[in-house]
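In the design runs reported in the main text, the only information available to the sequence generator was the tokenized backbone. The following block is the verbatim input for one such run; it is reproduced so that readers can re-run the procedure and compare outputs position by position.
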């Protein structure tokens, strides 16, 4: 074979080799294990790889509805870098989507962000059930560029990640570190958990995390953010950059909130006397446009008084933000059902909190 013939043969075979590589069976990576990392679930390793938001060994100490909600991995993220030309995922859901005030994408979706840009969502189907595998391809036949991958886990549905599919010869490396070594830790209600974002990447913590390049932990429990001691100790168990407390509305009365609010802060301060704490008063609710809500106003005033009392006593690491400054009467379009923010509402909340936290923590206001 002449050199010219050899060169021609190689030139013809190269595209075929590339085509074969691109169309080869995917390499499936399973969790847990480096270099793929899971963020936002502090007890992930302790829980044996289950995507729970609270420690399974303590599940009997939590009220049953709290533990049930803790199995929803809101705030959990899977992160890595890869130059793969294809990315797919295999998931198992326990049931189909069934929420009235949230789209299936928000309830069950797994969002893909590549280099900080939203690229698509895997979602539970109407025939989802235990033992049934859903396979979703986010992209394929893309240039082999190094990309920062973040997969945001569902807000309101347990899920098993059975595998992440990549090109057979793709490189996989750890994701780049965040701007701070410890996370923001949020405790609160359904608004904190993510109701009613259209998809997981649009919760206010997810938006905020991208804006400030920070890790976060979401301990919001829909209808059950009542501030009980067991949750105070769970929150305090996490070493945080800042604790953000947004629990009030799930307490039936101002008096019941008063019984738990100061003790919750006492637990935090006992464990972390100098870690910043940001307390948020309840955001605006649409019914307040018609008449005064004495309960919500009383809760706002109680939180103000408690924060002021601690500041006067010498606590220099606690601050308050008015929920109505984040989402107030002029921003009713930011609500879904009169109570829960939509994507616009969460965007407003994230922007307001980003400015406050950046100043409070001496961080840049934008990534």
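Verbatim output:
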């Amino acid at each position: 074979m002449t050199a010219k013939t050899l060169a021609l043969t190689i030139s013809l075979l190269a595209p075929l080799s590339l085509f074969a590589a691109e169309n080869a069976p995917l390499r499936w990576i399973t969790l847990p294990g480096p270099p793929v990392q899971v963020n936002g679930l502090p007890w992930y390793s302790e829980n044996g790889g289950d995507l729970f938001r609270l420690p399974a060994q303590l599940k009997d100490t939590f009220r049953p509805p709290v533990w049930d909600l803790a199995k929803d991995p809101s705030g959990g993220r899977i992160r890595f870098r890869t130059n793969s030309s294809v990315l797919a995922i295999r998931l198992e859901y326990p049931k189909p989507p069934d929420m009235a005030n949230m789209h299936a994408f928000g309830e069950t979706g797994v969002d893909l962000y590549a280099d900080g840009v939203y690229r698509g969502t895997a979602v539970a189907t109407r025939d989802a059930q235990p033992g049934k595998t859903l396979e979703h391809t986010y992209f394929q036949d893309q240039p082999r560029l190094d990309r920062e991958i973040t997969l945001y886990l569902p807000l309101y549905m347990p899920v098993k990640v059975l595998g992440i599919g990549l090109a057979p010869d793709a490189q996989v490396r750890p994701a780049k570190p965040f701007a701070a070594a410890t996370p923001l830790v949020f405790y609160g209600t359904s608004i904190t958990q993510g109701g009613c974002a259209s998809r997981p990447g649009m919760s206010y913590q997810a938006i905020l995390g991208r804006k400030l390049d920070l890790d976060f932990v979401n301990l919001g429990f829909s209808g059950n953010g009542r501030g009980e001691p067991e949750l105070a100790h769970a929150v305090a168990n996490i070493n945080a950059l800042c604790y953000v407390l947004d629990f009030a509305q799930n307490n039936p009365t101002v008096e019941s909130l008063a019984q738990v609010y100061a003790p919750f802060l006492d637990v935090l301060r006992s464990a972390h006397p100098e870690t910043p704490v940001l307390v948020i008063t309840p955001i605006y609710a649409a019914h307040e446009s018609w008449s005064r809500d004495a309960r919500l106003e009383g809760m706002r005033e109680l939180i103000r008084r408690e924060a002021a009392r601690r500041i006067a006593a010498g606590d220099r690491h606690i601050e308050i933000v008015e929920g109505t400054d984040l989402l107030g009467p002029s921003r009713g379009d930011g609500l879904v059902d009169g109570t829960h923010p939509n994507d616009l509402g969460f965007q407003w909340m994230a922007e307001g909190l980003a400015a406050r936290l950046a100043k409070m923590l001496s961080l840049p206001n934008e990534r």
